[in-house]
Amino acid sequence: MSLEHAILVSLLEQPASGYELARRFDRSIGRFWTATHQQIYRVLRRMEADAWIVAEEVGQAGLPDKKVWSATPAGRATLVTWLRAPVEPEAVRHELAVKIRGAAFDDPAGRTALRAEVERYRADHEATLAGYLAGERRDFPDGATADARAALQHVVLRGGIAYERMVLAWLDDVLATLHDLDR
Known about the structure:
Layout: H1 3-13, H2 18-27, H3 37-49, E1 53-60, E2 63-71, H4 73-83, H5 95-102, H6 108-139, H7 148-181
Antiparallel strand pairs: 1-2
Helix pairs in contact: 1-4, 2-3, 6-7
C-alpha cells in the first residue's frame, strides 16, 4: 500500500485540509499506516499534479486561507483499481520477539533489562487499546452502523482492538515466562 491510497480513502470519507489529514493519521489511521506531516504534504502535491485530488481554497476569519482537498473521479478510479488488486501476505518482522529469543544467551541481569523493555512495550500497547476502545465508544456507541462505510470502519477498528488484545496476552505470557526463569 502506498500513502496515496491511505490518503484517497481518507479524503473519500471526508474532504480535509493537510492539517486535518495529518490529525486523522495521528488519531486513527496511524496505527495501520504511519506518515509524518511532511510526507502527507509532499504526497498531496504529487497527487494534485497527477489529478487524483483537487484543492478548494477556504477562507478563515483572522487566519490564512486553507486548502481543503477532495478526491477527483481519477483519484477514485485509481483507488478502485488498487482495491481490486490482490494483497500479498505481509512478512512479520518483530524486533522484540528476536530479543526475547536472544535472552537465552544473556545473563539474569540482561533478562531484567528485557523485562523492563517488555513492560514498556506492553504499556504502549495498553494505551493504544484504551484509545481504540474510547474511539469505539465515541464513534459506535450502540454497536450499530448506519451504512457500509461505518460498518467497514468499525470492522477495521475491531481488528485493531483484537490485535492489541492479542499482543497484550502474548506480552503477559512473556512476562510470566521471564518470571518463571528467574525463580
